[in-house]
Amino acid sequence: MGALEAEVLELLQSAAPEALTPGHVLERLGSTLAYSTVVTVLTRMHDKGLLSRVKQGRAFAYSPIADRHGLTARRMRQVLDADPDRRAVLARFVGDLTLGDEEILRGLLGSWVPPRQD
C-alpha cells in the first residue's frame, strides 16, 4: 500500500462509520490533489477489496471493510494463501517471532474457541 492509500485509509477509518465521497475525502485531506486522483485512488482501493462503497447521489461513498488490525490480518492471510506449503510458511513465521510475540500467540491460541458449525 502506498503512502497516499495509507493516508486515505486512515482518514476513512477515522470517519467510520460514516462513508465519505471523493469530494469529502479531498476536503479532509486538505491537499492539492486533483479530484480525479482521489477518485482513482478510492476506486483502486475498492478494487483491491480494502473499501466498500455505496451510491450516494451521483458519486460513491467509501468506507473501509475493516479496521487497521483487520486489514493487516487480511494481508497476512493472503500471503499465507499464496504459498502452497502452509506448514512451512507457518513454521518459519513462528520461528521468527520474538519471545513476546510468541507468548501473545500462545495465549491467543490457548483461549481460542472455534466457531460453532450449525
Automatic annotation (TrEMBL):
Family statement drawn from the similarity comment of this UniProt entry: Belongs to the BlaI transcriptional regulatory family.
Keyword Heme recorded: no
Lineage, opening ranks: Bacteria, Bacillati, Actinomycetota, Actinomycetes, Kitasatosporales
One Pfam short name: Penicillinase_R
Protein name stated in the entry: Predicted transcriptional regulator
An example Gene Ontology molecular-function term: DNA binding
An annotated GO BP: negative regulation of DNA-templated transcription
Keywords of the record: DNA-binding, Transcription, Transcription regulation
Keyword Transcription regulation listed: yes
